[in-house]
Amino acid sequence: MAKQYRIAVAGATTTAGKEIITVLEERGFPAAELVPLATPGSLGSTVEYRDEEIPVQSIKNTSFHGVDIAFFASTEKISQEYAGGAAKQGCMVVDTTPCFRMDEDIPLIVPEVNAHRISEHKGIIASPSPAAVQAALVLAPIHRAAIVRRVVLSTYQAVSDMGDKALDELTEQIADLFNFRETQSALFPHQMAFNVIPQIGAFLDNAYTSEEMRIAQETRKVLEDSAIRISATTVLVPMYYCHSQSMNIETEKKLLPENARKILKRSPGIKVEDNPSEGIYPLPVYTTGKDECFVGRIREDLSTENGIALWSVLDNVRKGTAINAVQIAEHLISMRR
Fold it and tell me: The domain spanning residue 24 has which CATH number?
C-alpha cells in the first residue's frame, strides 16, 4: 500500500489555503489526515475535505508535530514565525508567501521549469508569486530554444491575490456604484470597481513597485539566469480571478512565431490558444478554474530584430498558487519512494 501523509495547511481559511485543500482532494493526494490551521480569528470555522467538515485549529509551534508536509498559505509574518520551526521538527514546508522566495539557500520552484532544484531543499521550498509562475512557464521553453535576453512585461492582475477581503471590497464597490452610492476603499489605494490601478505593492526608490521588482527577481531565479533583463509594470484590474500578461521577449537567436508556437504547444503547463482571425486567444473568463497557463497572440515583435510578442492568462489562485504548491509536494513524495 502506498504511503499516506499527514498534511497541514497553515492559512486554511485564506483564498489560497482553501484552493490548496480543493486541489489536494481533486488530485487524489495521498493524505491520511488533513490538519487545517489558522490564526485565532478563524477558530470556530471548518474546511471541507473528502465530504468531511474538519474544524480549524489554532496555529502554534506544536501544530507540526507528526506532520509530513505543511503548506503555508497565510501571511509572510506567519511563515516567518512558524515555517522554520516546522522544518526543524522534520516537517517539509511548501511556502506560498514572499517570505523565503529570494533566500539563496531555499529553492524557488515552478515544477514544469526547475523541478531538479527540489532535491536541494533543507526543509523549506518556496513557491513564486502567481505572476512569476506565469512568466516563468512562458519564458522557460523560449529561453531553452533561443536564449532570452530581455523581457518587457505588463501584468493585469486580479484582486484575489489580496485575499477574500479584496474580493468582498470589489463586490461592495460594484454594488455601491450601481446603487448610486460613493465607494469606500479600505484595501485598494483607489476605487477598484470599473477602474485600473497601476500600482501593486509599495513604490521603491527606483520608481518601480515592490511587486514589479519581485516578478523580475523571482523569474530570473526560477530560470537560473541572472543576466536576463526584465522590466515589469503591474496593474491591478477589477477582475476576481486570473492574471493576464503582455510580454515582449528579445532573444539571442532568431525565433519565428510559428516556431515559438510549436515550442509552447509541447511545453508542460502551457495551452496555446492562438487563432486571432477567429477571435481565439486567452481570456480570463474562460481561464478561471483551469489548470494551465494559456498563451496566444504569438507574433513577431516589430520593435527589435530578434523578438516575440505574446499574451498569456493564468488563474492566479488555482494554477499560480495552489497547483504549483501541490505539484511541489507531489515531486517531494515521488523522491521518497
Answer: 3.40.50.720
Reported in sequence order, the residue ranges of the chain that DSSP labels E, i.e. its strands, are: 5-10, 31-38, 46-49, 52-55, 57-58, 69-72, 92-95, 124-126, 148-157, 229-236, 243-251, 270-272, 293-300, 307-314
Residue 122 has pLDDT above 70, yes or no: yes
**Alpha-carbon distance 114 to 125, whole Å?**
12
Q: Containing domain of residue 266, as a range? A: 132-316
Tell me, yes or no, whether 179 and 222 share the same domain.
yes
Domain count, the chain: 2
Question: How far is it, in rounded angstroms, from Cα 19 to Cα 13?
Answer: 9
Domain of 249, CATH number, reads 3.30.360.10
Q: Kindly state whether residues 168 and 233 are assigned to the same domain.
A: yes
DSSP calls for 255-291: --HHHHHHHHHTSTTEEE--BGGGTBS--HHHHTT-S
Instruction: Give burial (CB, 10 Å; 0-12/13-18/19+) of 47.
Output: buried
- Mean pLDDT across the chain: 96
pLDDT digits (tens, 9 = 90+) for 44-80: 899 999 999 999 999 999 999 999 999 999 999 999 9
Q: What is the pTM of this model?
A: 0.96
Q: What is the mean pLDDT of residues 272-281?
A: 97
- Residues 203 and 206: their CA atoms lie apart, in Å, by 8
92 and 142 in a common domain:
no
pLDDT at 19: 98
91 lies in the same domain as 143: no
**Do 198 and 275 fall within a single domain?**
yes
| Strand locations in 63-180 (E) | 69-72, 92-95, 124-126, 148-157
pLDDT higher than threshold 90 for residue 179: yes
**pLDDT tens-digit series, residues 3-33:** 899 999 999 999 999 999 999 999 999 999 9
